[in-house]
UniProtKB/TrEMBL annotation, chain A:
It is found in: Cell membrane. The keyword Transmembrane applies. It comes from Jiangella asiatica. GO terms for biological process: transmembrane transport. This is Sugar ABC transporter permease.
From TrEMBL, chain B:
It holds the Pfam family SBP_bac_1. It comes from the Bacteria. Signal peptide: none annotated. This is Carbohydrate ABC transporter, N-acetylglucosamine/diacetylchitobiose-binding protein. PROSITE patterns: TAT (PS51318). GO terms for cellular component: cell envelope. It comes from Jiangella asiatica. Keywords: Signal, Transport.
Length: 307, 489
């Protein structure tokens, strides 16, 4: 066995490494090269222009808007989703009190568990289209304005999609709505694995529901939260489908709802500037990796061994 | 979405289209070339340059000298016009004369999605109907040298009469719309008339006149508003730039076509012309008097047009594809009649008459420079431009064509298109157009589009609007990476 070890290992390693190199590493390298050219995306030739695309990015006001919006998404969407996800999951699993069981979900939790999962089985384009009609004007079928009118809150009615300042917050709401279900399920699974006797002990010591949540539940599912947080930050960096479908290829009124993903798509396919689009792509790569690393480091906590 | 060169990109372009494009980004930005060395950007196929396109003997029957036995690969955009006009009308005409040329017909909804990679690889089909949401930017194709020069086609004798060249059978402006720096690269086959589309039924029922001057327009709008109907819609948050069409047309009627030449040639101060500001002020007064459909500034364009077609508003700026585009909403109410009117005059002493209309050839067809059989592709275009081919097209898809006289004797049943055809005939030589939206796509959208959107929400004044448009034009003018175009008149 000993003399054939390396060929044997290599035979198994080469195909996956090769596939990884071709489909993962090579595109990165090529994108970085394209970002240094003026390639239109149509021709077989392109001119090398050095860092011109990056200089252009530095002076691009629209890119700043997109960066600001991405920053809002990366900061707000994960926080909102985590808070809501943790809250709902703890309500479903450990929030109720019933005779015979000290730790259980609230009434009807089995139904909620299914309902929360619905947004996840609806594909992103459909969510985008549906929500563009939630926020549309009333005479064009706008659901939100109609609801506000029906309960007498006419003063709160807005032309949501025509108001620059609202656009990114609408995206925040839609993305949070579509993410929460998954994290409820994820956190539920984590909470199921917490031994019941810890809760019983906390109860015997007179711990309130909120204290139990803060001092018992959250620390014990923190690993899962951390994974979810990183994953969600990366998802929020993207936001392409939601913005493109709800607000259009220009990022809505005055481009105020633009994000990097949509901007990259627009430069590539609408402006035929694959070089600049690739430069934006490289920026996204750097930012996404930075965000992932920051979140991983910032969330390191001591591990609690359950066993 | 049919025949216009001024297409709207709908906010929610369908999922398939963009998934395909996302896939293409994946392919193009990082394809599965076999090794790291193989590149998304294609690279050398220099040997192609040396290859001669196949040809046959030039004769009276074969003025373009096409090879009589080589196949011809065709891509037709399967959109508002469908692709049956090609298989049922044009291809039989072509095949009757060239029975040994096999036509490989393809229909595609997303042209770029299917063909962009083939262009990059230097292996495009012979003939492409480059249209729809997936249109590949013609300006970019031209400046990348990817399109075949169509001069020979336009100089060749026409299909029907060997004594008349193809050029002379076309409507004025038809070739110009596809010409860059003096070379024709794009055959624009359908003819689009722009104007203000109105609800004839509502005007008739209420005895409101069709306004011919802006003052009459304001009077009619006051009556309409008093009756509880919205006088105007525009294409909402998606495409406020449609309002530029009456804006620029009215300004041109007031001051003459030179102002359009100045705008297209990116001359400094072009957007600050007094006539344009006066026209912009007139458009803004629609907002100031609350004459727009409530909430229209936040609507998706199809929703806004749909409400117009359902009688919620009277006037809507658009081109002659509107009737096709809103066919479903129009069919809901059998009494609904629509018609097109030329943009009203701002002042009695205008330079151009009321009948002046903006019209242009649209629906682009191209022959790629790397095509295997470009001569047969041009011959196919020549067949399309025959009287029989053009008439058949008009009847089949309810659209005018660039072929002069082809719609004569054709009864157009669609009332809107019939009124557009009548308006075009009444205009005679007073046909105007501007080219900057097709020359500089980013200048029109998002540039001017966003400025006009802000004007229509009354967030900026007319002077600020003119300054913003001027700034957009300056940006294009000073960007050396953009190929500049020029028009003489």
């Amino acid at each position: 066995m000993r003399h054939g070890k390396y060929p044997f290992i290599l035979a198994f390693l080469l195909p996956p490494v090769g596939i990884y190199a071709i489909y993962m590493l090579s595109p990165y390298v090529q994108a970085i090269y394209i970002s240094l050219t003026d390639w239109s995306g149509l021709s077989a030739t392109q001119t090398f222009i050095g860092f011109d695309n990056y200089v252009e990015m530095w002076n691009d006001d629209q890119l700043r808007t997109a960066l600001r919006n991405n920053a809002i998404l990366v900061l707000v969407v994960p926080i909102l989703t985590l808070l809501l996800g943790l809250f709902f999951a703890s309500m479903l699993n450990v929030g109720g009190r019933r005779r015979g069981a000290a730790v259980t979900g609230v009434r009807g939790s089995s139904i909620y568990q299914v309902v929360y999962f619905f947004p996840l089985v609806v594909s992103a384009p459909i969510i985008g289209i549906v929500f563009s009609y939630v926020f549309a004007p009333e005479n064009a079928g706008g659901i939100l304005n109609r609801l506000l009118g029906a309960v007498g809150l006419d003063s709160l009615q807005q032309l949501w999609l025509a108001e620059q300042n609202w656009l990114i917050w609408i995206v925040v709401i839609v993305m949070t709505w579509s993410f929460v279900g998954f994290y409820v399920v994820l956190f539920s699974a984590a909470m199921q694995s917490i031994p019941r006797d810890i809760y019983e002990a906390a109860l015997l010591d007179g711990s309130s529901r909120f204290t139990t949540f803060r001092k018992v539940t959250v620390p014990l599912v923190w690993d899962t939260v951390q994974v979810g947080w990183v994953y969600m930050a990366i998802q929020a960096m993207d936001a392409f489908a939601t913005v493109h479908i709800m607000l259009g290829i220009n990022g809505g009124v005055e481009g105020a709802g633009d994000v990097l993903g949509v901007m990259m798509y627009r430069e590539a396919f609408s402006s035929n500037d694959f070089g600049y689009a690739a430069a934006i792509g490289v920026l996204m790569l750097v930012l996404t990796m930075a965000v992932a690393m920051l979140f991983m480091r910032g969330l390191r906590r001591e591990r609690v061994e359950l066993a | 979405m049919t025949s216009s060169i001024e297409r709207t990109t709908p906010a929610g372009s369908d999922r398939r289209t963009f998934l395909q494009r996302v896939a293409l980004t994946g392919v193009a930005l990082g394809p599965g070339g076999a090794f790291l060395a193989s590149c998304a950007t294609g690279g050398g196929d220099d040997d192609d340059e040396a290859e001669e396109a196949p040809s046959g003997d030039v004769s009276e029957d074969n003025p373009l000298g096409i090879p009589e036995d080589q196949p011809l690969e065709i891509y037709i955009f399967d959109g508002g016009f469908g692709d049956e006009y090609a298989t049922e009308i044009h291809q039989p005409i072509f095949s009757e004369r060239w029975p040994n040329v096999t036509i490989e017909h393809h229909a595609a909804v997303d042209i770029a999605g299917e063909l962009q990679a083939r262009f990059v690889a230097g292996d495009p089909p012979d003939f492409v109907n480059n249209s729809g949401d997936g249109q590949m930017d013609p300006g970019q194709l031209i400046s990348d040298g990817l399109l075949y020069d169509l001069s020979e086609l336009f100089d060749a004798p026409s299909w029907d009469d060997p004594n008349v060249t193809v050029r002379d059978t076309l409507l004025p402006g038809a070739i110009e719309a596809g010409t860059r720096n003096g070379t024709p690269y794009v055959l624009n086959y359908a003819f689009t008339v722009f104007g203000i589309w109105f609800n004839q039924t509502l005007l008739d029922e209420n005895g409101w006149p069709v306004p011919t001057t802006w003052q009459e327009m304001m009077d009619v709008c006051a009556d309409i508003a008093a009756a509880g109907i919205a006088p105007w819609v525009y294409q909402g948050v998606t495409a406020p730039r449609y309002m530029n069409w009456p804006l620029l047309s009215m300004a041109t009627k007031l001051a003459g076509p030179e102002i359009l030449v100045a705008i297209d040639n990116l001359e400094p101060g072009a957007w600050g012309h007094e006539a344009i500001k006066e026209s912009a002020a007139a458009i803004l007064s629609l907002r100031e008097n609350n004459y727009f459909l409530p909430g229209v500034e936040a609507m998706e364009f199809r929703d806004a047009q749909g409400l117009w077609a359902r009688g919620e508003a009277v006037f809507c700026p658009s081109g002659s594809w509107l009737e096709n585009e809103e066919a479903d909403a129009i069919a809901e109410n059998p009494t609904f009649q629509l018609a097109m009117m030329p943009d009203p005059l701002l002042s009695p002493d205008s330079v151009m008459p009321l009948e002046t209309v903006r019209a242009t050839a649209g629906e682009p067809y191209v022959v790629p420079a790397d095509a295997e059989n470009p001569r047969a592709a041009m011959e196919y275009m020549r067949a399309m431009l025959s009287l029989e081919g053009a008439r058949g097209f008009s009847e089949a898809v309810t659209s005018l064509t660039s072929v002069a006289g082809a719609s004569e004797g054709v009864t157009i049943e669609a009332p809107g298109l019939a009124s557009a055809q009548a308006a075009l005939q009444a205009a005679g030589d007073n046909v105007i157009n501007w080219y900057y939206p097709s020359w500089y796509g980013d200048m029109e959208n998002p540039g001017i589009d966003q400025a006009t959107g802000a004007l229509l929400r009354a967030e900026i004044t007319v002077d600020e609007w003119a300054d913003r448009c001027e700034a957009v034009a300056t940006e294009v003018r000073e960007d050396d990476s953009i190929d500049k175009q020029n028009r003489e008149s």
